[in-house]
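Record 1 of the preview.
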Amino acid sequence: MNFTDKNVVITGGSTGIGLATAKAFINSGANVWITGRSVNNLQKATEEIASPNLKTVVSDTSNLAGITLLEKTIVDSGHTIDVLFLNAGMFAFSSIEQTAEAVFDAQFNTNVKGAYFTLQKLIPHLVNGSAVLFNSSVVATATNIGASVYSATKAAVSKIAQIAANELADRKIRVNIVSPGPTSTPGFEAIPGGAEEMAVAATALQRMGNPDEIAKAILFLASDDASFVTGAELLVDGGYINYALK
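->
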């Protein structure tokens, strides 16, 4: 797929799926802006990608100040946006009985509020016919113990994306959802208690996904090859949903 001279914005692009997607777009000729909270992680991403087509923005998109900073960066660059990948997210697992308000707020602020208002602020800068991608998750429809808040945030993200697809259709802007299954990212690998083994056992393919595999699905949805696809959810989960429900 060719994204030569296309302008791509990826929130939460310094590690994991966001970083893999940034690499894939740059390898396909795009100019890419990635956001992140950590200066150190953004610097590592810059060194790893090693391309003049990559720009980094220190921005916490869980709050409006960080989103406004991202918008200003794009405006000051003089560019419009061809692809927006709303990827920034976080998770924390605990039972409903044990979930603290701060843990609840942090996940909703990052996963839902951040995606919602980033889209809102950047809509004026999207070109007609552009593509917007939301990173949801298979947990949006799964019922894993301890994942009530995270699952709720991802279900909200998916519904926002579906409505955005209708609201932006008059500008031929396509809005789609990618829902990864268990994927080998720094965040997932940090989960204690044998989470990876349990996740692998719950997939039909009996393995973890690779961030590069998720990135390929994202590039497809962003490309002209998916020109008649909007409001859709693409599961990239190794058969997690169907297999886990057996």
